[in-house]
Every structure is written in C-alpha cells, then in structure tokens.
C-alpha cells in the first residue's frame, strides 16, 4: 500500500497560479506512473494530467493543456502540478493517484480505473 498526500490547494483569483504537490510513501515511487484528477461538485472525477515513471512522457486533458504542467522528483517521492492561468472552471478537489501495475487495475492513462492508490484530495477554488 502506498500513501499519497496532496498539498498546495487554496483560493486564488482567476488568472493566478498554484502548485500542487503529492508526496508518496514507500521506496518504489520511481516505478509508478502518476496522475492528477479533479472532481467538481455534482460532477464525475475527471482526468487532468499524467506522467510516466521516468518523467519522460506526460499527458494532459485538453482543458488544461498549455496552462498546467505535471512533473516529478523521484528523489523526493513527489509529483507536482503547476497550474497557471487558472479559471473559475478549474475549481475542484484535486487528487493524485498512483499506478503500481497491480493486477486488476487497467485502462488508459486518463482512466481512473488504471490507478490503484489515491490521495485524500486538496481543494482548489478559483474566484472570478
């Protein structure tokens, strides 16, 4: 079991920036693909961004492409989400997730079913 703890959320005005962090426990973080998802009130959880275990490959939802950047520091067991040019529609609880290649979990990088471990979430609120 891996524990994921998000931080960095808060209240920001439209056009502002935030950087989310997700710290992972365990010694094998560098072998996990990682993802960020978000869920707004009354809506389903949606994919935001993902990064391969090496950091060589990154993926983004169309709605955040060009504004958000996912990165990781395997030495610190941490994945980041830099969010710029924030919009009110970015308001949501943001979750990080780990894909440890466990049997029974599968799907594309943008599918929640791929990820076996989730953090508790951090609230991001963007005011207009």
What does the overall shape look like? globular
> What is the β-strand count?
11
How much helical structure, as a percent, in the residues? under 10%
- Enumerate how many helices there are, as a single number: 0
CA radius of gyration: 14 Å
Q: What is the CA–CA distance across the termini?
A: 39 Å
Mean pLDDT: 96
Residue runs with pLDDT of under 50 for 5 or more positions: none
Compressed to H and E, one letter per element, the order equals EEEEEEEEEEE
Strand residue content: over 45%
Structural class: mainly beta
Q: Strand count, sense and closure of the main sheet?
A: 7 strands, mixed
Write structural notes for this entry.
The protein is an all-beta fold and about 130 residues long. Helices cover about 0% and strands about 45% of the residues. It contains no helices and 11 strands. The strands form 2 sheets. Strands 2, 4, 5, 6, 9, 10 and 11 form a 7-stranded mixed sheet that branches. Strands 1-3-8-7 form a 4-stranded antiparallel sheet, with no helix packed on it. Strand 7 (about 70-75) and strand 8 (about 80-85) form a beta hairpin. It is globular, with a radius of gyration of 14 Å. It starts with a strand and ends with a strand. The mean pLDDT is about 95.
